[in-house]
Specification:
Blueprint: H1 4-28, H2 33-85, H3 91-113, H4 117-144, H5 148-172, H6 177-197, H7 205-226, H8 238-247
């Protein structure tokens, strides 16, 4: 669900139409009072279940958003630590590694800031090349000087590369489609029952519009939190930007 606004508009239209359809069913066959009570019980149970599912899914979306924030912080810590440790390397490699780490840091900032999928693909390719180059330098340094301090630098570079992988995995970790289908199905059924069980004799806008609007807003917020690139609520690379400012110019 990378387009939360589309989710909102689509949900609102479908749920509003569902309420209108429920009213149409009632107009074809008026409910008796005893039947209305039975439908009211089913309606209450349906809306209660919908509230529970929405709350559970919202919790899933928040936990995934928090996870992405955590990995952004870990990336900044890993890069900053490795930048300092790079001073242990042979003098010929220090400037090379630190220059590449600055370029790598710039790419990570762009990864968090860019929305265009094509631009993100370019950023990922550049990041992958820098990772290969950095690891190649680590291999050469370890082979030329297999000491404990150099091993510490190699371990730090491994943390840098791993943190990027963890970040990517967290961005792929989305709310399952089955959860969205379940929420949508229960919401549609609930709105049909609202229209079917209403005490009105003529359709009124507010009676059909309020519940679909509230549910659609909930869907919008969940989709926004669950979308790393498409939503308004995004993880800002604050720690990476702070690190870039502290490193300064080469």
């Amino acid at each position: 669900m990378d387009f939360p606004l589309i989710v909102f508009v689509f949900s609102l239209l479908v749920l509003w139409s569902s309420s209108k359809f429920g009213f149409y069913l009632q107009s074809r066959r008026a409910l008796k009072e005893m039947e209305r009570e039975d439908v009211g019980i089913i309606l209450g149970a349906t809306l209660t279940l919908l509230g529970l599912i929405i709350g559970f899914t919202f919790s899933m979306a928040v936990s995934r958003y928090d996870q992405r924030k955590l990995y952004e912080e870990e990336e900044a810590n890993a890069i900053g630590t490795e930048y300092v440790r790079a001073g242990i390397l042979p003098q010929a490699d220090v400037a090379k590694v630190r220059t590449m780490l600055r370029a790598y840091l710039d790419q990570r900032v762009l990864f968090y800031s860019t929305r265009d999928p094509r631009r993100i693909a370019v950023i990922k390719a550049a990041t992958s090349r820098l990772e290969n180059d950095l690891w190649s330098v680590m291999e050469s340094a370890a082979a030329a000087q297999p000491t404990q301090p150099v091993a510490l630098v190699v371990s730090g570079m491994n943390d840098v590369l791993n943190s990027e992988g963890y970040t990517q995995a967290s961005w792929w970790n989305r709310i399952p489609v089955a959860a969205w289908m379940l929420m949508g199905t229960i919401a549609i059924c609930g709105n049909v029952l609202v229209g079917y069980n209403g005490h009105h004799t003529a359709p009124k806008l507010m009676q059909f519009f309020v519940l679909p609007l509230l549910i659609s807003i909930a869907f919008l917020l969940i989709a926004d939190l669950d979308s790393p690139n498409g939503g308004l609520i995004r993880v800002a690379p604050q720690n990476l930007l702070s690190l870039a400012a502290s490193l300064g110019a080469p």
